[in-house]
Amino acid sequence: MKNQIILYTLLIVSSLSFSNCELEDPTIGVTTDEIISIKSSAPEILANGEARITLTAELLEKADPNLDITFQTEAGSFPLAGEGVRIATLTASGRDAEITLQSDNENTGPVIVSATVGNYTKAFELDFTPAFPDDIVSSADRQTVTADRVDFAQITTNLYRDAGLSTIGTRVNYEIIELDTATASIVPFDFANADLQSIVEVKSSNGKPGVVQVVISTEGEATQEVIEIVFEEQ
């Protein structure tokens, strides 16, 4: 009888120990899918620095309610936790915790977003989609250039959006239209920098005087810009 009591006591202690360790050690046989899940209010977010979606984490049947849940993202931030903060911990209200994710304008493509409770982490990929400009404005620092294959004009293109910002790294395309004997060289494309500008150089490629047009375009709804460059004899 005494041995039976000891055995029952050991079983009870073992059971309690297992329960207390559930959220500390995923190797004990409890899977992440029994502990926590995470979902978003949309499958993608616009990388314009302003777009927002809601992430919801849920504590499942093998987890206790009202636990601390840590959200983490590879891009964007959690405004609730502060500007630029990519890790935030909330206490679940019962079994759910929600947080707002705001995009940045630096990253595109799949981004890993996760929710963690104890040592259990559930993650998924959220698509950051490019925010193309609604308008571009291009200007040249000079429109008359010596046709010596050395002298050049610098063309600056600024990207604008009606809502938020264009995505850094947006491709800007350049094309030369020859109007007479003059030809010109310019890179076929460039990528917008952190100031949402593209800055390139155009110069004579055959040393002959004349006029060319530089046509500038991007993806999206922005209309093309056209700049005329005059090459003068040396």
Description:
By secondary structure, this protein is mainly β. The chain folds into 2 domains: 29-130, Immunoglobulin-like, CATH 2.60.40; 135-232, Immunoglobulin-like. The chain is 9% helix and 47% strand. The protein has one helix spanning 2-21; strands spanning 36-40, 44-47, 52-59, 68-73, 87-91, 96-102, 109-117, 120-130, 135-140, 144-146, 152-160, 171-178, 184-185, 189-191, 197-204, 210-218, 225-232. A 5-stranded mixed beta sheet has the order 2-8-7-4-5, with no helix packed on it. A hairpin with a 6-residue loop joins strand 16 (210-218) and strand 17 (225-232). The longest helix is centred in the first third of the chain and has 20 residues, at 2-21. The protein is rod-shaped and about 80 Å long.
Précis, in short:
With 234 residues, the protein is mostly beta strands. The chain is 9% helix and 47% strand.
Write the layout of secondary structure elements.
Layout: H1 2-21, E1 36-40, E2 44-47, E3 52-59, E4 68-73, E5 87-91, E6 96-102, E7 109-117, E8 120-130, E9 135-140, E10 144-146, E11 152-160, E12 171-178, E13 184-185, E14 189-191, E15 197-204, E16 210-218, E17 225-232
Parallel strand pairs: 2-8, 10-17
Antiparallel strand pairs: 1-3, 3-6, 4-5, 4-7, 7-8, 9-11, 11-15, 12-14, 12-16, 13-15, 16-17
